[in-house]
Amino acid sequence: MLNSVTKVLLEQRKYWNLMFRMAIFDIKGMYQTHYLGSLWQVINPIIQIAIYWFVFGLGIRGGNPVDGVPFFVWLLVGLIPWLFISPSIVQGSNSVHQQVSLVSKMQFPVSILPTIKIISNSFQFIVMLSLLLIVCIIYNINFTIYIVQLPYYIFCLYIFLFSFNLLSSTIATLIRDYQMFLQSMMRMLLYLSPVLWDTSSLPEAFQNLLKLNPFYYIIVGFRSSILGGHWIYESPIETLYFWTLTFALLYFGSKIHLKFRKNFMDYL
Amino acid sequence: MKVKVEVKNVYKSFELHAQQSEKIFDLFSIKKKNRKEFLAVKDVSFKVYEGETIGIVGLNGSGKSTLSNLLSQVIQPTQGEIELKGVPSLIAISAGLNNNLTGLENIKLKCMMHGLSKRKIEEVTPSIIEFADIGDYIEQPVKNYSSGMKSRLGFAISVHTDPDILIIDEALSVGDSTFARKCLDKMEEFKQRGKTIFFVSHSAGQMRTFCDKVIWMHYGELKEFGSAEEVTTKYEEFTAWFNKLSIGQKKEHKKKMLAGQMRFNHYLEQVKSEKKHRSPVELIKSVLVLLPLVISTVLVLLGI
């Protein structure tokens, strides 16, 4: 039953080195012509963080903390994963369409193209996570035992991005409208995730609806790991939902990827 | 002698869509009726042995490029089979370089993508730079290159990745005569080493001196396959005859031949659709994956 999933996963393992080296070239190519170079990888998110903090923190919330946590820290913990998720998904979904004409002339495992985009965005993510650590120290946030959950949620984040991109990159190659749709969806999802605002004031039914967004699980997870408060086993249904969704994406993603990958060129 | 490439009754059809929406119906294999398709390659079969150099000639639009794409596995045949013993590599004019990176970085990246090890890349880089011969520009971003420089670099990289089967699709028509000479010498070297080369060109002279056999593609069909001298002469006779025709006659001839490549109602599709039948096992698997998802979705919505 898992033939296609195993095949795709084995390819990722086999070409692990190649993916890393290509991700480095990816970043190089992106910033080579810029005077500030890869510094933009940090400047860009900082500008975004500043504007969201100004509008949502100072403007709408009037500088009030969320559950005793300063809003700035509360925002950062949610926004930093989001600033990794959003470009990884948009670029990852486009990656196959963008590069398949290049790689089809050689024996190249197409399934690693979306993963390369996740890796190249990870460098920025790691830098931002270390900045987050500095901010937490400045704000005197004491890490609690809950921090041990963080590796689990980071793992969730990566496996979800991989599964989603595998399916998404195939669809985006076959149907070009999908990429447009996805870009608008991602812009919308930022507001439907508990990144910028606290959703706990919503009626219960709406909150449950928002929980269907898989990033809800990840972002809430990041917050409860870094700021403390919840254990994974306290939300078993959400965990079950997240993993069944991820598995379904992985399963259908591998299947249609393998089915269409030989014919990608015909759909360009 | 060992058979290196075997092509068995290969067809390649391209569907002609009157509307964009038809494409999406095809994707989900519904409403397939009266769709026009164009047979770019029609029932082509041949065998090529180790160390042979095969030329491919034909008019524009006769299916040469489709055939070379099929041989290099860039596209898959609609019907029929292609058996390759070895790794093919297509060298086309569109070299596929990253414009933002420098020439040197492009060499590294392309070699990497071809699966060369780090050591091997360091080994071949000097000889690629030597072969491309573009001087100090190697340190510049590729976007500053002239089109000739781009194809030189692209060609230099491709021949150094050491493929078993080379497919050269009119790549030599760019670049000056000294570079073309250099490329031909390089190919001669490949020939000596027993590699199989497919060579698409319009030059009858190159065909005669360089190829052992020649394939003549004519409106999707393999018209002639035989010794270089014989086929090239026949092809030249044909082009001479064709050029003598008046413009009206040429159009008439073309129209007639192109009509022969059009098909309705998917006569190739019949073979395909038999394979397409969804087995019930697959369906059960899909349900098994989706069912837990549906259940957990409901549970989340109920807020249990």
UniProtKB/TrEMBL annotation, chain A:
This is Transport permease protein. GO terms for cellular component: plasma membrane. Residues 36-260 form the ABC transmembrane type-2 domain. The gene is tagG. Keywords: Cell membrane, Membrane, Transmembrane, Transmembrane helix, Transport. One of its GO terms (biological process) is lipopolysaccharide transport. It is found in: Cell membrane. It comes from the Bacteria. InterPro entries: ABC2_TM, ABC2_TM_bact-type. It is a multi-pass membrane protein. The chain crosses the membrane at residues 35-56, 68-85, 125-146, 152-175, 239-258.
UniProtKB/TrEMBL annotation, chain B:
Pfam families: ABC_tran. One of its GO terms (cellular component) is membrane. GO terms for molecular function: ABC-type transporter activity; ATP binding; ATP hydrolysis activity. Keywords: ATP-binding, Cell membrane, Membrane, Nucleotide-binding, Translocase, Transmembrane, Transmembrane helix, Transport. The chain crosses the membrane at residues 283-302. Gene3D superfamilies: P-loop containing nucleotide triphosphate hydrolases (3.40.50.300). Residues 5-244 form the ABC transporter domain. Coiled coil: none annotated. It comes from the Bacteria. This is ABC transporter domain-containing protein. It comes from Ornithinibacillus bavariensis. The lineage of its organism: Bacteria, Bacillati, Bacillota, Bacilli, Bacillales.
